[in-house]
Amino acid sequence: MRPPSSSPPSPSPSLWRDTDFRRLWAGQTASQLGEHTTLVVLPLFAVLTLDAGAGPLGALRAVGQAPILLLSLLAGAWVDRWRARTVMVLTDAARAMALGAAAVAGLLGLLGLPALFVVAFTVGALSVLFDVAYQASLVRMVRRDQLVRGNSALEGSRSAAQIGGPALGGALVSLLSAPVAAAAGALFFAVSFVSLRRIRRPESVPERVAPVPERPELAAPVRGRIREGLRFVAGNAWLRAVCLASAAFQLSFAATMTVYLLFLPRELHLTGATVGLALAATGPGALLGSVLAARLPGRLGHGVVLVSAAVLGNGALLCVPALYGSSTATILALLAVNFVFGTFSQLVNVTVMSVRQAVTPDGMQGRAAATITFVGMGFTPLGSLLGGLLAQGWGLRTGLLVTAAGMMLSPVLMAASPLARLGRLLPVPREEPRPTE
User: Tell me, what DSSP letter sits at residue 421?
Assistant: First the structure.
């Protein structure tokens, strides 16, 4: 008689037969649609309804992005102390109420820029918490051998929301009105709230560990672990280069998008629906970039792919200031530019992630990713403000040309760093640092 250990493991059941997972997926999908619709609706609300100029629009985008800088490193620690489903449900309810109030105030003509700033910051902060919570919720809901399939489903719906959300938001603003589009965003968050509330699987509250009296340094373990991540990234030449290139890209890209959102409707006289369509073209490009990232680095070398893809993707946006009018040719050119940008930007993103994972020990993966995200995305509020100032002082066409040219600093930094010398094989990670005592 064979021992039980010699029998083949039973295959894991399909996640789509799991009612609670389907409810999580549906809620997360609706939430992502609401988030990416709102990212377009609020700036268009300011430009088309409140007649905001370049400076106020830059400030609005900066306020909405500020929670990434303020909360990214802390969101994980906070979510770990609560049930993930509770965090998601509360953030959905709060975002629905914030956008619903903005829609009512807009329809009554009572919504001004200061109130819109409050809405943008509130939605941004709650979205940071939700995004951390839904990833933690999946880990607590499914078996470990189901994580890959679960993440694939959730990230697939997020990619679809990135494609459809901007187009839907632009179309609603153009065909109906900005307040109605804001109400649609609130409806998406309400749908997510209802779906997530119906999850029945119990979720235990994570253990809240109290500090040991004899070890006062354990009173702030989060701070110590954050410091370890910062020191590790700063001490690794490849990761330092990734941080610098990412910071340069995010600063310039945020500035470019601020001017871009003004340039399309005011300089090219495009409708909100066309603006959303142009932005949505990056989505299919990102899907193609993901496919290319699985093949090109192993054939051409990781360094060659990183530098050349960054040059092609970022350089594509330099074509936009040369466009005039709202003709069919202009719209097709915008679609092509955004498709190329989406393709090569995603190729850079996936390749950089592979490099980061390859050179980072297992026990440092999360902190290295958080540190790089914090450093890179932390510059987006400043970039949005800079873009508004440049557009206001130099004009939309010149401002867009300058900010798009600034994006070329990222491939220059990569070309001058050890990243450019990476070949077909990735380096091995260094020894993992010891925990802070």
Answer: G
